[in-house]
Design brief:
two-stranded antiparallel ribbon; alpha/beta; eight-stranded mixed beta sheet; 49% helix; single chain; 20 helices; D-Maltodextrin-Binding Protein, domain 2; 2 domains; globular
Length: 414
């Protein structure tokens, strides 16, 4: 009996010692990603003595709240945030360098190139992909057939999109060939910029410090959009819409081609099963293909203790495992590792692979002033699109955009 009591006491002591040494970390995540990250954290916590706590922050509040928390010394150990903001936080010396960890991952080459690019500042890596997504086009195959177009052949250039859109609109006045969200900077960089990247052009230099707005590729892209608008082939709510009705417009069967994101496949098949559609990469004016690499990256806040850093990076390894990658695919539509894409999508609609295949060519604006340049309702990018596609003075709108971009960059570049 004495020996049994001694054994029990030893086990209890070992357990209490283990619990005493357990660490907890807090991750701030956008509400749009909250459910998936909470699920991953619960899976991790169920099998580890260390714990990951998830705090959900609305997308609009994430950047200012995180910035204030860092400045006030009350930041969480890590954050899962829109990858476009990583250069800003890295440049302000707010993030922990995890270069060695990322480079040593056996699947490092399978991580989204754009997520790694946006997480890199001054040669160091400060983040890792968490929940990526990509922009694509969806097109209604029934409308393609009715318009005499091959439903098995996706438009391979923006010129082909414009031609198809006008033919679809010719079916009747209430049917439109094309839909894009023109009154939201967040949507526009997601849908519009890939046309330029597919043509090896951009509105910013690679380091994000110089404006390169007025290019032949941009002028060709604008010309195709203006052609569709003037022909009445673009859905009228595109000009003033903020994206809330884009999917519904396409799902009505009255829109031929929709600029959209990787989520569209699972959304349409679950909510609008009667819509016959295919998806394809976003083409450039004359060809090529690209996409906006969107979604979230996980970054650690500078000053995190070695013990908590170990837990955070262990959580990254955990959610990168095949079982969790399958869960991410099921819940959010796109796994973090390209080498697991076919395995992750095996149980899902194979059209998802179109978006994932293009992720390797996808880009994201590398900038320290994303909100001012692209998101602001009065910003130069939104004014550029409205002025050049729907306005009368293309040259004037281009010059103003170039000037406004330059002024913002000169003021905000670190």
């Amino acid at each position: 009996m004495l020996r049994l009591k001694s054994t029990i006491a030893a086990v209890a002591l070992l357990a209490s010692s283990s619990l005493a040494n357990a660490e907890e970390i807090t991750l701030w995540v956008r509400t749009s990603s909250g459910a998936v990250l909470q699920g991953l954290a619960e899976k991790y916590n169920a099998t580890h003595s260390d714990k990951v706590n998830v705090t959900q922050i609305t997308a609009e509040q994430m950047v200012p709240k995180l910035g204030a928390a860092i400045a006030g010394g009350a930041a969480p150990e890590g954050a899962v945030l829109d990858l476009i903001y990583l250069p800003t936080f890295a440049a302000s010396d707010s993030l922990e360098d995890i270069s060695g960890f990322v480079k040593d991952l056996p699947y490092a080459d399978a991580l989204s190139p754009s997520h790694i690019r946006l997480a890199t500042y001054d040669g160091k890596i400060y983040g890792v992909p968490a929940l990526p997504d990509a922009s694509i086009i969806a097109y209604n195959t029934d409308l393609f057939k009715k318009a005499g177009l091959d439903p098995d052949k996706a438009p391979a250039s923006l010129d082909e999109i414009a031609s198809a859109a006008k033919k679809i609109h010719a079916l009747d006045k209430e049917t439109y060939g094309f839909y894009f969200v023109a009154n939201s900077g967040s949507w526009l960089i997601y849908d519009f910029l890939p046309h330029l990247w597919a043509a090896n052009a951009d509105v910013l230099s690679d380091d994000g410090r110089t404006a390169t707005v007025d290019t032949p590729a941009l002028r060709e892209t604008i010309s195709a959009y203006r052609d569709m608008w003037q022909a009445g082939a673009i859905h009228p709510t595109s000009r003033s819409g903020n994206g809330n009705n884009a999917v519904e417009a396409f799902a009505s069967g009255k829109v031929g081609i929709l600029m959209t994101g990787s989520y569209i496949v699972n959304l349409l098949t679950s909510k609008y099963p009667d819509i016959k559609f295919a998806v394809a990469p976003i083409p450039g004016p004359k060809g090529g293909a690209s996409s906006f690499a969107g979604g979230d990256s996980l970054a650690l806040i500078k000053g995190i203790s070695d013990e908590k850093k170990k837990v955070a990076l262990d959580f990254v390894k955990f959610y990168m495992e095949p079982e969790q990658q399958l869960y991410i695919t099921q819940e959010s539509g796109m796994p973090s590792r390209t080498d697991l894409a076919k395995e992750a999508y095996a149980k899902f609609d194979p059209r998802n692979l179109t978006a994932y295949d293009i992720l390797a060519k996808a880009r994201t604006p590398y900038t320290f002033s994303s909100d001012e340049l692209f998101v602001s309702r009065t910003g130069p990018f939104l004014n550029l699109i409205q002025g050049t596609i729907f306005g009368e003075d293309v040259d004037g709108s281009l010059k103003k955009a170039q000037d406004d971009f330059t002024k913002i960059l000169e003021r905000t570049n670190p």
